[in-house]
């Protein structure tokens, strides 16, 4: 079964005389359980694609189907709820709330949905991402890689159908040279 399908997806940016075809007819199928990395040079359209897949921005044309639902057909409100329950999104700039600690950031989307956090599961995620001793730290007390892992923990905590992560691989898992 495909957890995500994309058909002829286009995103053209028209800012005055600067026309950019950021995506120009993307087709993609991702099966349930599949792990896929999209690699490309800076400016090649990776973030744009992820934003379209996550319903964060509207494509110029084309279809995005996640877990059997065509998200292009959803209203704004439906999309907000669908996104919060089904899609774990890790932003390129992490988007952590600066006045909330690590734990509060992680459980925020769950609480917005009026659900009680599964604290055993949250502890498991914190251990997995080596953040168990940072639970009560504020984002500005963390390294870039640690902040990115908090953003990943927040995405995992909602038990989403799919995780879309706009990540720097090196800051997550370490590289010999930094990029
Ligand atoms: N909001 C925007 N307005 C105009 N052009 C944009 C906008 N966002 C991205 N672009 C352009 O789209 C192209 C792809 O950008 P992006 O998806 O951010 O690339 P990547 O994430 O692969 O580095 C770039 O040429 C960029 O300048
Ligand atoms: Mg990018």
Bound molecules: adenosine-5'-diphosphate, magnesium ion
Q: In order across it, which strands form the biggest sheet?
A: 2-1-3-4
Looking at the chains present, what oligomeric state does this protein adopt? single chain
Annotated CATH topology of the largest domain: Rossmann fold
Please give the share of residues in helix. Answer: 25-40%
**What kind of sheet is the major sheet?**
4 strands, antiparallel
- Structural class category: alpha+beta
Mean pLDDT: 92
Please write the string of helix (H) and strand (E) elements.
EEHEEHEHHHEH
Q: Which parts are unreliable, with pLDDT below 50 for 5 consecutive residues or more?
A: none
Per DSSP, what share of the residues sits in E-state strands of 2 or more residues? Answer: 15-25%
Total beta strands: 6
Instruction: State Rg.
Output: 17 Å
Count of discrete alpha- or pi-helical segments spanning 4 or more residues: 6
Distance separating the two termini: 36 Å
GO molecular function: ATP binding; ATP hydrolysis activity; transmembrane transporter activity
Protein name: ABC transporter ATP-binding protein
Keywords: ATP-binding, Nucleotide-binding, Transport
Organism: Blautia pseudococcoides
Summarize the structure.
This protein is α+β, with helices and mostly antiparallel strands. It has helices at 46-53, 76-86, 102-112, 119-128, 144-157, 169-173, and strands at 2-15, 18-31, 61-66, 69-70, 87-90, 162-165.
Q: What does this protein look like?
A:
By secondary structure, this protein is of the alpha+beta class. The protein folds into 2 domains: 1-73, Rossmann fold; 95-160 and 168-173, no CATH class. It has 6 helices and 6 strands. It has helices at residues 46-53, 76-86, 102-112, 119-128, 144-157, 169-173; strands at 2-15, 18-31, 61-66, 69-70, 87-90, 162-165. It has a 4-stranded antiparallel beta sheet, with helices on one face. The chain has a two-stranded parallel ribbon with strand order 5-6. A hairpin with a 2-residue loop joins β1 and β2. α3 (102-112) packs parallel to α5. The longest helix is centred in the C-terminal third of the chain and has 14 residues, at 144-157. It is globular and about 45 Å long. The model has no long low-confidence stretch (mean pLDDT 92). It binds adenosine-5'-diphosphate (ADP) and magnesium ion (MG). Magnesium ion binds next to α1. One of its GO terms (cellular component) is plasma membrane. It comes from Blautia pseudococcoides. One of its GO terms (molecular function) is ATP binding.
């Amino acid at each position: 079964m495909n957890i995500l399908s994309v058909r002829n997806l286009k995103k053209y940016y028209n800012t005055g005389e600067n026309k950019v075809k950021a995506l120009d007819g993307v087709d993609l199928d991702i099966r349930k359980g599949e792990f896929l990395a999209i690699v490309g040079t800076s400016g090649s359209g990776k973030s744009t694609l992820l934003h379209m897949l996550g319903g964060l921005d509207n494509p110029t044309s084309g279809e995005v189907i996640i877990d059997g639902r065509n998200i292009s057909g959803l209203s704004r409100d439906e999309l907000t709820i669908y996104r919060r329950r089904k899609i774990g999104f890790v932003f390129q700039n992490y988007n952590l709330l600066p006045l909330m600690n690590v734990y509060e950031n992680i459980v925020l989307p769950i609480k917005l949905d009026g659900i009680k956090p599964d604290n055993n599961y949250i502890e498991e995620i914190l251990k997995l991402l080596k953040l168990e001793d940072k639970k009560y730290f504020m984002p500005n007390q963390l390294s870039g890689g640690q902040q990115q892992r908090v953003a990943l923990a927040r995405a995992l905590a909602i038990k989403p159908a799919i995780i879309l992560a706009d990540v720097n691989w090196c800051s997550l898992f370490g590289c010999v040279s930094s990029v």
